């Protein structure tokens, strides 16, 4: 049975009226995010900028302009130069390892095998762990006396007896020996960022049309040719985005070094974020701390712009 | 000798029998069209010939050797996909050269020569430095064809290669593709759901339905001597008319069903009283919808009259329409298969 229902006239400023006003709702919904970014990123950033060109300290908070003197000063300290070198080295090496492993992992995970979802779940776990807690876990694994890794080496007779491959001493003292400490830090960066990069690349691989892969197959391309001439070139745009994410995270993170080595032995594993923290917060030299923290900002900004442009330029569809 | 021989080929996806016991032999140089509605298994059949799909059972041999277990890259075939599947990051030159490079053992100069030959043949010499996204639909199709041909395949597989072109371009592309195939003489399998493409291009047509081959024959054979009611009603637009008799079906084509006055000599004709329900004027022709009175179940029947016949047909009237007796086709009511003529 059909009945004619008279359309009820709506109140001119009823709920429907307001919920249809995209010009009002858009800004309204964006507002919290904008406030958040201004309060927690924008203002501190501006304060840091201001601090870096003044003589402010924790004891004397008057802002007297000193130009680039802070930057000149920090460039003369060996701690800063070591931190800068470490930041660059840790970042570059970890990114290279990440991009290679992430590609391999993404290729494996984008094929079909039993228990795939479980493998994906396990691989995503490091990304779901708070970075500081994850690093504390690693701190225990790399403990100078009780390291389970050393225990496994001893069990396999690779360590702790005369003539063993890794030496006759009982422990490897990962965080006490400079090269091992650096390697440990890089290892944790890789462990931390690999899942996200792999998942991003996996999404990229999945988005390649099956027709193209079938065509490559019909055209006679084997596994390696398909990988290097079809798959990788097609995911370069998304790969550069994955790289950018991981790069910015790695350069900006202080938790790993702070928890793991506190910059030691001596200051040889300091990186810019931890050194800025020790200098600016712990020893109160706010101006030099700010200058240290901001030092790489122009470089990062340029890298980000370049990567984004590159990513857009290499996009093919 | 047959270049491709397919024996009892089946592909089952779980419970779905996508291809179900297909036998085919395709002689050298033939352009064979596989025609059927979507989901009839025609693309699966082609993908099995290409090696992209593994048969559940059956044997495929190409050029006399069994390729059933071989991967696509070692089969002497080339394929053009519906989407053309051009590598978007490569220039036209590199797209066409790709199968040659993948093959290995071909010198740079030879690659250059072969790509140039393909480009000349297809008229795309000027496009060699472009990327696929800078090409029109028709140009993309040629590039895809060029890439397929440089391999000098024994068999060329085309999966609905014209369906991405607009209607106008399709007609000329059809013509071009056919001339091209004749000139090169490459054995070609062409999959389509478009019967105009199939009728216009195929040396022979394979009509498929629900994973099975319904009929194999020249366009004339499948149209005029359809093996069963599926083929008869699938081909032609509109398809064959059927009138139910006690235990069989009588079929005739809409264009063979004309007013008695026009049909000519009476002794050769089968007359039907045709009650007209609707007339559709389409310019070159008019389609007349109605029912034949006195048939067991009054099914809708369509007459397709050329505008040149200059006949006035009014809705609601009954006319004497006729079909030449030799044009009547008879089918079994249960199985749908063609049977010998019966007296009406």
Can you characterise this structure?
The complex is a heterodimer of chains A (317) and B (344). Chain A is mainly alpha-helical and 317 residues long. Helix content of chain A is 68%, strand content 0%. Chain A has a domain at 78-274 and 297-313: MetI-like (MetI-like fold, Orthogonal Bundle). Chain A is built from 14 helices and no strands. In chain A, helix 2 (22-52) crosses helix 13. The longest helix of chain A is centred in the first third of the chain and has 32 residues, at 78-109. Chain B is α+β, with helices and mostly antiparallel strands and 344 residues long. Chain B folds into two domains: 2-224, P-loop containing nucleotide triphosphate hydrolases (Rossmann fold, 3-Layer(aba) Sandwich); 244-339, OB fold (Dihydrolipoamide Acetyltransferase, E2P) (Beta Barrel). Chain B has nine helices and 19 strands. In chain B, strands 6-7-8-3-9-10 form a six-stranded mixed beta sheet, with helices on both faces. A five-stranded antiparallel beta sheet of chain B has the order 13-17-14-15-16. Chain B has a four-stranded antiparallel beta sheet with strand order 2-1-4-5, covered by helices on one side. In chain B, a hairpin with a 3-residue loop joins strand 11 and strand 12 (248-252). The longest helix of chain B has 18 residues, at 167-184. Chain A binds chain B through residues 209, 211-212, 214-222, 225, 229-230, 233-234, 314, 316-317, and chain B through 50-52, 71-74, 77-79, 81-83, 85, 87-89, 98-99, 101-103, 131, 133, 147, 151.
